[in-house]
Amino acid sequence: MLVVISPAKNLDYATPASTETFSQPEMLDDSEFLIEHCRKLSPAKISSLMKISDKLAGLNADRYASWQLPFTTDNAKQALLAFNGDVYAGLDAGTLTEDDLNYGQHHLRILSGLYGLLKPLDLMQAYRLEMGTKLDTGEHKNLYQFWGSRISNKLNEALDAQGDNVLVNLASNEYFKAVHPKALNAEVYTPVFQDCKNGQYKVISFFAKKARGMMARYIIENRLTDVSQLKEFDSAGYQYSEQKSKGNDLVFTREEQG
């Protein structure tokens, strides 16, 4: 099976990478094109466009200015180890073995507003460009239009290479909107994580993001090959709920945390 996850806003370039193995992103020509458009934006425009503080806007203007090819281990870091948000806390990639990381190269992809689609060990330089950003590149008014069906096409290539047609969607709605399900040669399954709060089960963003990372790790560590095996996931107290699950939405519930 092939797994897709979202990137993270927070990045960690201070911690040394846990592996020396790396690869190069496959859509760098597109990334370079987007960077050229981002470089035309003033910090004030970046702040307005991305709804971020002036300080963060200045930081990202500097990132766009310093972004350069080629990527090396001196100026870039493997994507799975550079992202540092809630999903990646659950995935805890720094403790995966070299064999796990190699398996992830074939079975895990990261959706990205700037890079399109990343393999775990693809080198990347620091950036912030969320998929929902309305970046006008002239012909296209936002990133969804810019990427079009190309991300889906790359996913089809990855599905062919890894040997079946199962795609496990562990990405956020914002990012999975960049995938065109009708263009995919895949059966898409979406795990949903609900926590009990005040007697009701609901998706709580912080917990759900972390659980998506834990599920990605579970798939990698256990080398899952069949959808039925996903239902055995029980990390951090989550349990599969056949009653709540419907169609290809696989619901996992957890009792209220103390």
User: Rounded to an integer, what's the Rg over CA atoms?
Assistant: 18 Å
Mean pLDDT: 97
Number of helical segments with 4 or more residues = 11
The count of β-strands is 10
Output the structural class.
alpha/beta
Kindly estimate the percentage of residues that lie in beta strands according to DSSP.
Answer: 15-25%
> Which residue ranges are poorly predicted, with pLDDT under 50 across at least 5 consecutive positions?
none
The helix/strand series, from N terminus to C terminus, equals EHHHEHHHEEEHHEHEEHHEE
What assembly state would you assign to the polypeptide chains in this entry? single chain
Helix percent band: 25-40%
Spatial separation of the terminal alpha carbons: 35 Å
Commentary on this structure:
- This protein is 37% helix and 17% strand.
- With 258 residues, it is of the alpha/beta class.
- The strands form 2 sheets. Strands 1, 3, 4, 6, 7, 8, 9 and 10 form an 8-stranded mixed β-sheet that branches.
- Helix 2 packs across helix 3.
Provide a concise account of the structure shown:
By secondary structure, the chain is of the alpha/beta class. Helix content is about 35%, strand content about 15%. It folds into 2 domains: about 1-25 and about 75-125 and about 140-255, no CATH class; about 25-70, no CATH class.
